[in-house]
Design goal:
The structure is a homodimer. By secondary structure, chain A is an all-alpha fold. In chain A, 71% of the residues lie in helices and 1% in strands. Chain A has a two-stranded antiparallel ribbon with strand order 1-2. The radius of gyration of chain A is 19 Å and the shape is globular. The interface between A and B is large, with 56 and 56 residues.
Chain lengths: 308, 308
């Protein structure tokens, strides 16, 4: 990955993000899935744990923890917010994989949830995980000493990012034939809702846990908006250009040509330019808060570098 | 209906509940579905509005508003909590009707959501409605002057009642073959999770909006627990005994014999006895708060009467 060695002592920003936040999150999640089963039917607990522990980049929880720490809240205290963001993301993947949606048999090399537990249980497991996100955050954040007003606002940000005007709305634009348009702006609209809204919500809800001003919140919000777009553009580019080894999966060129992506709408070169533009806009949004630089700024800058 | 004329001036308690709370709720919901479409893809808004306005008893929101009013919160101020309970209930019905679940083509005489909008949109509409429940309540209850701590606790009650240890867990017990047991207690377990948990949450979350003690909350919580069970038992009985006119639908005797119900597990007479027992327990839970009687107590008592 060409993001290595951009002035952070040889380690890529994503690697540092991983060491500082993803590992903490993974350990917590692992423990949670083993222990938190009281009053939950066994097969349902198994089904949810199966998808929650099936790997993934954990980008949303890592960004949530990083934003919280920068706003004065130790990552350990922000874990319930990060968990909630990952619950909603995982739930959306379980439902995305269903036969009536993308009809995928495998995700990250493992059989999809409905292949293991059946469609009915997969539908309910996704539903439960979405609702669990809210009970988890609403119940555990106050126990971490986060003020009730801040909990309310942070969890509201997460709900808005995942609901009908956020991720859920984006899924409709992406999958519902009658909702689709042919203009190129539509690709931006889908990406900013389907992918961008939850990434932005993860960042902003983490920041919101701290004692910050609305102006500071806006910086994190804008960072999340542009980072989310950059992330989707890079994903679309890598789907076309990456080799199997780089991507960790078979590049699905047929699918990429079928589906509306930044590459199909803008062509490869213009898509790369857009990735750089959104990465830089994300970095730019945080620069007023960190004139000396910061890992989150490096993460944003390194994202577009992955496509070169 | 034999619940008429039980000392409330000729009107049945359910009719009074309807006049005092359901009409207010219906008017609010109707208005909301027309107006609240900003940033929501049109087809998604249509799909959600289709199921939200497709009728139904509105028992959960009515109980929520009634409990709130008895705890000092005017029904108008508690509407966001009642809306959230109904959103979650409606979302669960959309997913219940899917081909991979109950595979129903009609609900309340209208084509089910997936029959009109397709399965993919029905899955996402259900997801979005569940999440909308939370953003709606978290955002609008504070605007009604409800204290943030109370909002947090009330919405947590709703989430717990609908998630993996509540309604969602009950759906798994009800539909997942590998989760099922043969003992009669299992029917209680399913009903108390699948139906009871959300009814209890609707009552308790409404009460929680007021400035009440934990002891008072417990009364409403217990009321909701027993009322939810009574409601399911009565529903199972009416599915077998009611004529088409009484029920407003064709009694589905084959289904009732196929599925695990209170009637199939206990027989009709014992089921009626259990309905009376749970109705009385619900009434009993609220009696300390209302020594002179109350509509909610009458509602509970009248419920079992419907089976005679």
């Amino acid at each position: 990955m060409s993001a290595e060695g951009n002035g952070t002592g040889g380690k890529s920003p994503l690697k540092i993000l991983d060491e500082q936040y993803v590992r903490l999150f993974e350990a917590h999640l692992e423990e949670f899935c083993k222990e938190e089963r009281s009053n939950i039917p066994e097969r349902l607990a198994q089904s949810m744990a199966y998808s929650l522990t099936a790997g993934g980049k954990r980008l949303r929880p890592a960004l949530c923890l990083a934003a919280a720490e920068r706003c004065g809240v130790a990552p350990e205290r922000a874990l319930p917010m990060a968990m909630a963001a990952e619950f909603i993301h995982t739930a959306s993947l379980i439902h995305d994989d269903l036969p009536c949606m993308d009809d995928d048999d495998f995700r990250r090399g493992k059989p999809t949830n409905h292949k293991v537990f059946g469609e009915a249980l997969a539908v309910i497991a996704g539903d439960c995980m979405m609702i669990w996100a809210f009970s988890h955050a609403l119940c555990r954040l106050p126990a971490q000493g986060i003020q009730p007003e801040r909990v309310l606002r942070a969890v509201t940000l997460l709900a808005e990012g995942s609901g009908p005007a956020g991720m859920g709305g984006g899924q409709v634009l992406d999958t519902d034939r009658e909702s689709q348009r042919d203009d190129r702006d539509f690709v931006f609209e889908i990406a900013s809702m389907k992918t961008g809204a939850l990434i932005r919500a993860a960042v902003a809800s983490g920041a919101m846990l701290g004692d910050i001003s609305d102006a500071t919140l806006q910086c994190y919000y804008d960072y999340g908006t542009h980072l989310g777009l950059a992330f989707q553009i890079v994903d679309d580019i890598l789907d076309v250009t990456a080799t199997k080894e780089e991507l960790g999966k078979t590049p699905n060129k047929d699918e990429a040509q079928d589906k509306r992506t930044f590459v199909s709408a803008y062509g490869l070169d213009e898509a790369k330019r857009l990735a750089v533009r959104e990465s830089e806009a994300a970095a730019h949004a945080l620069e007023p808060l960190f004139p000396q630089g910061d890992l989150l700024i490096d993460v944003a800058k390194s994202l577009a570098m992955r496509t070169f």
